[in-house]
Every structure is written in structure tokens, then in C-alpha cells.
Specification:
By secondary structure, this protein is an alpha/beta fold. The chain has 2 domains: about 180 residues, Alpha-Beta Complex (Spore Coat Polysaccharide Biosynthesis Protein SpsA, Chain A), CATH 3.90.550; about 140 residues, no CATH class. About 45% of the residues lie in helices and about 15% in strands. The chain contains 13 helices and 11 strands. The longest helix is centred in the first third of the chain and has 24 residues.
Length: about 375
């Protein structure tokens, strides 16, 4: 009986930790445009592009509508025949008031095609403040101001994870169930306790910090540029900070396999780059507290299905509260998608320990140790 109550206590601890993470992730979304500081430094925005994403014109076009006095936009593409090239050229021609250019051709410094695509853009940037922003990020008008607002004397890098938005089918909402109230929540929680991690969706650098440790090519030290960035910033004795609220990634339509492949890719890279942090990650999902609660109920003599259901419902309700508080997407389907996500998470966790290879945007990649490409 004593052991049963000990297991029940463990379940309670896991639930409380989830509640704490919810509290740490609560944001206050801005209702007004954040003004540019009086001494606003000029900023370069480097956007690697590859193929046609959902909402491509909207996300890339948002680069030209920033309410910031001095910035340039550098688009980088690996191949001149990429279908996104005419879209970028059209946007540049339509906004002559914004300094912008397209650089064609990458530099083979790593197995990471996105990093390879960013190198020449970084080298060409004219300014000391540089934002690396994925092509599918929808930039608010105060994009730069919000990045600068998160910078202080102890900062080495400011990041934003993706906030899933604009779903056009149920599987896009399924991806939101992973991105917003689960992954963003835990990243804010880690930041809240002083263990910030970089996220490659948006990374805002001061050039001298990265250049002091080898420049952008130093990010080839890891399969994921955000993992390499985290380690570089920590070596410098600085912190990774997060923006006040994540920038949107409009999703459009997704398939179940799109979501699955993205999640296993991210999990395999987390396991490879931060194995000690990845090891307890199984405890962060809702499945583990529910299973521990069910086991405790069996030992103590409580109603097993009712106990597990109450644990899940309490966790799902807290996620719903988080989504509404932060004005993130939420619909009546989300609780059912939370259940599917929670059932998948143990499989994703186990897969990451067993598998190394994945495909990203048509490029076969692996987290196994391999020789770096020659330059």
C-alpha cells in the first residue's frame, strides 16, 4: 500500500510540473505595435529559401512590411532553377523601397542544407545585427523590435520557436497540438528556469558573438544549427533568450505523414545533440503521468480508467487555458488531437533512440557521426 501511494505521489509531481510549465509559458500578447528604439541599429535579415511553402508569398512578403527604420533583406537559394526564385524576384521588384537581394548558390560547409544556404547570406550582410529567419515565418511589423526587446547584457542569441497558425485541415491542427501548447510551452519553461535552448526558426545574432567562435561556419559542428548555436552561446558564458511570443508559421494543409516525419526528425536531432536532456523528455508528455496514475490506482485500489482520465483531462484543460491565454489557435478538435499526440509521443521517443536517418526537403541526412564535407 505504501508503494502504491508513492507511485501516486510521483503522478502528482509530474502533473504539477506540467502545471508549472504552463505557468512559465503564459505570455501577454501585444495589442499594439512595439515602436523602434531611438537608437535603432541597422539590421540584416537573412532568409534561406527552398521550394514553395504554404503561404509562401505571404511569409516572404512580410519581410518587406516591417515598421523598422533601417534593415536589409537577403534571400539565399541553393539553385537558380528553384521554383521559389520567381516569387522572390517578384517581391523584390514590387518593393524597391526596401534594400533586398537574392543570392544564388550555397557553400558546402556541413551536412545541413539550410546552414549551407545561409553562409553566403551571412557573409554578404552589411550590418552587425543579423536575423536568420526561415522562409515560412510570418513576420509581424514589429519583428525586429521584439527581437531587440529580448536582448540584454547577458544575451548571446535571441530566438523564436514556430507558433502554428492558419490550419486548413485536421492534420495541420494536429501539428499545432505539437508545436504550441507542448513544444513551445516546454521551451519557455526551460528558458524560465535558466536553461534556454536555441530554435532555428528565427535566430537573432550580434555578429561579433558568433564570429568570436568561428563565425557561421562554426555552426557546422552539429547536425542542427540551433544545437550548435546553443552550445556556442553557453561556451561564451551567455544566455539564449526567447521573444515575448512566438512568431507565426502558417501551416495551411498538412498530411499525417508530414507531421510524423517532422516530429521524428526533430526528436532524432535532440537525442543526438543533447542526449542528457533528451533522456527524461518522456516525462514531459501527458502519457507518462496518465500511465503512472493508472498504475498507482491499480496498486491502491482506485478506479483505473477514471484515474487515468482525470489526469489527462486536467492536463488537456491546462493546455487549453494556455492556448486561450496566449491567443494561439484552438478548436473543438484539439482535445482529440491532444489524445492522438499523447499516444504517439512514446513511439516518437523510442524511435529517436533507435533510428538515425531522415529526409529533410528532399535531402537524406543522418545524425550519425560522419566526416564533414570538403570545402
Amino acid at each position: 500500500m505504501t508503494f502504491g501511494y508513492a507511485v501516486a505521489l510521483l503522478c502528482l509531481i509530474l502533473v504539477v510540473l506540467n502545471f508549472i510549465s504552463i505557468g512559465l509559458a503564459m505570455r501577454r500578447p501585444r495589442k499594439t505595435l512595439l515602436p523602434a528604439p531611438a537608437d535603432a541599429p541597422p539590421v540584416s535579415i537573412v532568409r534561406p529559401v527552398c521550394g514553395i511553402d504554404n503561404f509562401c508569398e505571404e511569409t516572404l512578403g512580410s519581410s518587406f512590411r516591417l515598421a523598422y527604420p533601417s534593415y536589409e533583406v537577403i534571400f539565399c537559394v541553393a539553385r537558380a532553377n528553384d521554383p521559389v526564385v520567381p516569387v522572390v524576384e517578384k517581391l523584390i521588384a514590387a518593393h524597391p523601397e526596401v534594400p533586398a537581394r537574392l543570392i544564388v548558390g550555397d557553400e558546402n560547409v556541413s551536412a545541413n542544407p539550410k546552414l549551407n544556404n545561409c553562409v553566403r547570406g551571412w557573409d554578404a550582410a552589411r550590418n552587425d545585427w543579423i536575423a536568420l529567419a526561415d522562409s515560412n515565418v510570418l513576420m509581424p511589423r514589429d519583428f525586429v523590435q521584439r527581437l531587440l526587446a529580448s536582448w540584454d547584457a547577458t544575451t548571446g542569441l535571441v530566438c523564436s520557436m514556430p507558433q502554428g497558425s492558419h490550419p486548413k485541415n485536421i492534420w495541420a491542427e494536429f501539428e499545432i497540438a505539437f508545436l504550441n501548447t507542448y513544444q513551445s510551452r516546454w521551451q519557455y519553461a526551460a528558458h524560465g528556469v535558466g536553461t534556454g535552448f536555441a530554435q532555428g526558426k528565427v535566430m537573432f545574432w550580434r555578429r561579433d558573438i558568433l564570429d568570436a567562435d568561428g563565425g557561421i561556419r562554426a555552426l557546422a559542428a552539429e547536425i542542427a544549427e540551433d544545437a550548435a548555436s546553443t552550445k556556442l552561446v553557453r561556451r561564451a558564458g551567455l544566455n539564449v533568450n526567447l521573444v515575448d511570443s512566438p512568431f507565426q508559421q502558417p501551416l495551411g494543409r498538412r498530411s499525417f505523414m508530414d507531421v510524423w516525419h517532422r516530429q521524428i526528425r526533430w526528436a532524432r536531432m535532440r537525442r543526438k545533440t543533447f542526449p542528457a536532456y533528451y533522456l527524461p523528455e518522456i516525462l514531459a508528455g501527458n502519457a507518462t503521468p496518465a500511465l503512472v496514475g493508472a498504475y498507482a490506482a491499480e496498486l491502491v485500489g482506485w478506479n483505473v480508467p477514471l484515474t487515468a482520465s482525470l489526469v489527462l483531462l486536467s492536463l488537456w484543460c491546462s493546455e487549453a487555458i494556455l492556448a486561450f491565454a496566449n491567443r494561439w489557435h484552438f478548436s473543438w478538435r484539439m482535445p482529440f488531437l491532444f489524445l492522438l499526440r499523447d499516444l504517439m509521443q512514446p513511439a516518437i521517443y523510442l524511435d529517436a533512440w533507435l533510428m538515425d536517418d531522415f529526409v529533410w526537403r528532399g535531402t537524406a541526412m543522418s545524425v550519425r557521426e560522419e566526416e564533414k564535407p570538403s570545402t
